[in-house]
Amino acid sequence: MKFSKLFLIALSASLFISCSNDEEESNKPEGVYDNGFFILNEGSQAEGTVSFLSNDLITFEKDVYGPANNNDIPGGYLQNIFFNGDNAYIISGGSNVINVVNRYTFKLVDKIDSGLVNPRYGVVKNGKAYVTNANEYAWGGAWDTEGNTDDFVAVINLKTNKAETPIPLNGTGNRIIEENGKLYITDPNNSDKLLIVNIATKSLETPVTIGSNADSIEEEDGILYILRGPYGSRSEIVKVKLSDKSVSKITFPETLDGAGFMDIEDDKIYYTVGSSVYAINDNATAASTTPIVTSPAGYVYGFAVNDNRIYIADGVFTKDGQAYIYNLNGTFLKELTTGIGSNGFYFND
Amino acid sequence: MTLKKRFAFCFLLLCQIILAQQDTITKLKEVIVSDKNLKNFSNTQSVQRLSDSIINKNEALLTDLLNFNSTLYFKEYGRGMLSTVSLRGTTSSQTAVIWNGININSQMNGSTDFNTISGSDYNSVSVKAGGGSVIYGSGAIGGTVHLNNDLEFYNCFENNLKLDYGSFNTIGINYKTTISNKKWSAQIGFSNNSSTNDYKYVNKYNWKGEQRWNRNGEYTIFTMNANLGYKLNSKNTLKLYSQTSNTDRNTSLVTETETPSKYVNGFNRNLLEYEGNFGKLNTNFKTAYIFENYQYYADNTTNNYTYGKTESLIAKADIGYTFFKATQINGVLDYSKTTGTGSGFGTNTREINAASLLVKQDISASWKNEFGLRKEFTDNYKSPVLFSLGSSYQFGKLYLLKLNLSRNFRIPTFNDLYWEEGGNRDLKPESSYQAEVGNVFTFSNITLTQNFYYIKIKDLLQWIPGKNGIWSPQNTDKVNSYGAETLFSWKKQVGKNIFTVNATYAHTISENSDTKKQLFFVPFDKATAGISYSRNKISAYYQFLYNGFVYTRADNNPEEIINDYTVSNIGIDYDFRFLESFKLGFQVLNLFNEAYESLENRPMPGRNFNMYLILKF
C-alpha cells in the first residue's frame, strides 16, 4: 500500500513537471530515454524486451526495461506501446498486463493487470486508455463464432490504472486509432470491416466494409488510410472519408501482392511489400512499384516512418533480430541488433 | 513375527523366483530385454536397461527416471508439465518411444511427452542410443526409449502396490497384479499420479516483492494396463497388450496474470501378437490399434477447446529363418494407416507400406554381425532407403567392441503436412547417417561403456515465416552431431553390505553445419550418478544430476543461456518384511534447494519430500 502511494505521489509530481515543461516548450532532456525511440521486441510467451536508440543514432541499449526494474519481466508477447503524459504503457498480450513506466527513466510505475484478455493496441483520450483485446482466439474450434465476436475495448482510467466497463465489439479488433471522439478499429484476421466506436456513448456505430486483411490504419486530414494485403488477391489502400464514411481505393498491381505495413508522414504514404519500402503522395491514385529501399530483413515485422527516417524491424524468433534505419531516399543510416520478434518503433518526443 | 505367520499362506502362492533381494541393488548394467528385436538385433549398439528396482527409486513420471539415470536431456515446462527429450544432440521428435515394440510417438507432433508416462507401468525401461529406423521406423535418429511389459510363464501370483505421498500434495498409486502359470500369463494394473503442484519458486519474487509460486500447475495422470499371454502349445503363443491413459493438466503460468490454460490428452493402445517358433522357422504377426487425442483449452474457465486425434492401424508380419546355425534372416512387411482429425488440420489419412530385411550372423560366440534394410512406400513423402550395418566382437573377457553404421529418418507429422494455414505437403523426411563405435570394458565388478558417434542430419524441418506472414515448415537446416557417452557401473558386496555406483556422462556437440553454431537447447555436458548402499532390510541411496548450460538462441548469444544446474536427491527405505516385501521409504528431492530450470521462466521446485510404501504380496 505504502509502496503504491509513493508511486502515485511520484507519478503526480512528474506529471506536474512534465506539464510545466510542455508550456515552456523546452527541449531539455527529461531523462536517459528522452530524445530517442523504443523498439519493442515481442519475445516469447514468457518474456519480451524493449530496446532504445537515441535520435542521434549513437546511444543504444538493447534491453532497457529489465535493468531499470530489478530484472522484472514486462510479460510475454509485447505488442504495443502508447504514451500519456510522462508515462509509457507497454502492452503484454501474452501476460494480460500493461506495464506503466516513466517514459524517460523506464522505471516501473504500476502494472495494469485486470480487465485485459490478450490485449493488442491502445490509444489515449481524455485520461482514459482504450485498448483492443482479442479475448479468445478462434482457432478452428466449434466456438469459432464466439472467438470472432468476443473482442472488446478495455477502458482504463489512467489516474487509477483500473479498468472500467469494457466496450464489446461484437467482432474482431486489432489496431486502433482515435479521431474526434471516435475509435477506428481494424483487424487483419477475421474481419472485413472497419469498426467505429463512439467514446461518449460507448457504443458501436455502423461499421464500414473495407475488405479482409486490413491492418495498418492512419488518419490524415479527415481521411482514414487503411492498408490491406489479402492472400491471393490484390493489395489495396482503402480511404474512408470521416465526414460521410465514403470509401475509395487505390488497388495495387499484382506484383505488390501481400503488402505489409503502412505509415504516413508529411503527406506521403509509405508502405511495405516483402522487404521493400515504397512511397506515394497521399493524393495519388495509383501505387508506386519502384521501391525506395529494399532492406535485408527476411521478415518485416515492424515498420515506421518518422522525422525523415524509415525504420524497419526484421522479426527473427530463434535469435535476436535486426532493425534497419534509412533516410527517406533509402540511404542506409544504421543497423541494430535488437531482440526476439522486433515488431514496432515508438518515438519518445 | 506373528504377522509373518499370518501371511504365511501368501507365500505358498508366491513366485518361485524371488527377485526381492536384488531389489535393493541399483543396477544399471546393459542387458537384453524381451522386445524381440531389441533382443535380437541390438548387439552392435548400446542398450541401457532400467529395471523395476530403479524405477521404484525415482519419482513416478518417466522424465525423472530418465533424467537421473541416463544421458537423455530433458526440457520441462515446469514440474509435471510438457517434457520433451533430446538424445545425442537431436530434436525432440528424433527420439522414438517404443511400447512393446511399437513406435508410439505422436502422429500429430512427432514427439512424446515424458510427463504423461508413469515408469512403474512397465517391467523395464530401456534406452537404446543410436539409430534404429530400420526396425522402429520414424524418429529413431538419436535413439529409442523402450517401454516393456515382459510376460513370463511360470506359476506365479503376485501383487505389487506402491503408494507415494509427497510435497505439493503429490499422490501416487500404482497397483499391479501378476497371475501366471505355464500356459497363461496376465499382468493387470493401474497407476494414478496427481499433484496440486503449487510449489514456490526458489528466490523468485514479483515486482511487488511477493514470493512467486507455480500457479495453475495441477496435474492428474491415470493409466490402466492389461497384458495377457497364452501359450497354445510349446510352439505357438498369443499375446495381448492393452493400455489406456488420460492426462489432465493445467499449464503452469509463466506470469501471474496470463490466461490460465489446460491441456488434456490421452491414448488407447492395443496390440495383439502371435508368435510361432518352429525350429529354424519363426514367425511373428502383430496387429495394433493406437488412438491418441488432445484437447487444449486456451482459457480453462471456458469449455472451448482446440483438439486433435489420430487413429492408427498397424499390421506387421515378421518371418525369420535360421540358416546353418549362425545366420538368421528375417523378412518383415508392415502396413500402417493413420487417420487424423483436428481443429488445426482437418481430416487426413496416410498409408505407409514398408518392407525390411534383417540379417543376423553369429560367426562365433564372440563375433556377431547385423545387417538391416528398410524401404517405405507412401504417397505422402519420398522415402529414403534405410539401412543398418553392425558388428560386435568380444576380445577376451575384458573388452567388447561394437561398430554400427545406419541411415535413419523422421517423417513429417500431421501438423507439418496439413496444418491450416501453413502446412506443407511437399516436405521431405528428415534423414540422417550415423556412425558409432562402442567400447565395453568389463573387469571384476566394473562395467564401463564408451560410445563415440557421429550423426549427419539433413532436411531438418523448421517452421519459418513465409509470404504474408504465414508460418510454414520447410526442410531447412543441416546438422552435424557428434560426441561421446560414458556409462559406468560398479557393484561390490562385502559381507552383508552391498555398494553400487552407476554413472553416465554425455558430451555432445550438435552444430548447424552452415552457421557452425551449437543447436539451442542442446547441452554440451550432462552427467548423472547414483550411489546406493544396502544391508539386510535397509537401503540408502543418493542421486546426482548435472546439466550443463544451454544456449537459447540460434546465434549462441552468450547472454541468452539457461544456466547449468546440479540437483541431488537422497533416499532411504526399510523393508519391514510383513509381507513378501513391505518397504517404507523417505526421500529428499533437490536436497540442496537448487534454484534451477530447464526452460526460460519455468522454474523447478526447491527442496521437497516424498514418502513411499511398496508392498508385495
TrEMBL record, chain A:
InterPro entries referenced in this protein's UniProt entry, alphabetically: WD40/YVTN_repeat-like_dom_sf
Tree of life domain: Bacteria
Gene3D superfamilies reported for this sequence: YVTN repeat-like/Quinoprotein amine dehydrogenase (2.130.10.10)
Protein's name according to its UniProt entry: SMP-30/Gluconolactonase/LRE-like region domain-containing protein
Automatic annotation (TrEMBL), chain B:
Annotated membrane topology: Multi-pass membrane protein
Chain coiled-coil ranges: none
GO annotation, biological process: siderophore transmembrane transport
Homology family: Belongs to the TonB-dependent receptor family.
Keywords from the UniProt entry: Cell outer membrane, Membrane, Receptor, Signal, TonB box, Transmembrane, Transmembrane beta strand, Transport
Molecular function via GO: siderophore uptake transmembrane transporter activity
SUPFAM superfamilies: Porins
Domain TonB-dependent receptor plug: 42-144
One Pfam match: TonB_dep_Rec_b-barrel
Domain TonB-dependent receptor-like beta-barrel: 185-591
Record-linked Gene3D superfamilies: TonB-dependent receptor, beta-barrel domain (2.40.170.20), TonB-dependent receptor, plug domain (2.170.130.10)
Compartments, record wording: Cell outer membrane
Organism: Flavobacterium cheongpyeongense
Listed name of the protein: TonB-dependent receptor
InterPro entries, sorted: Beta-barrel_TonB (IPR000531), Beta-barrel_TonB_sf (IPR036942), Plug_dom (IPR012910), Plug_dom_sf (IPR037066), TonB-dep_rcpt-like (IPR039426)
GO cellular component, one term: cell outer membrane
Signal peptide: 1-20
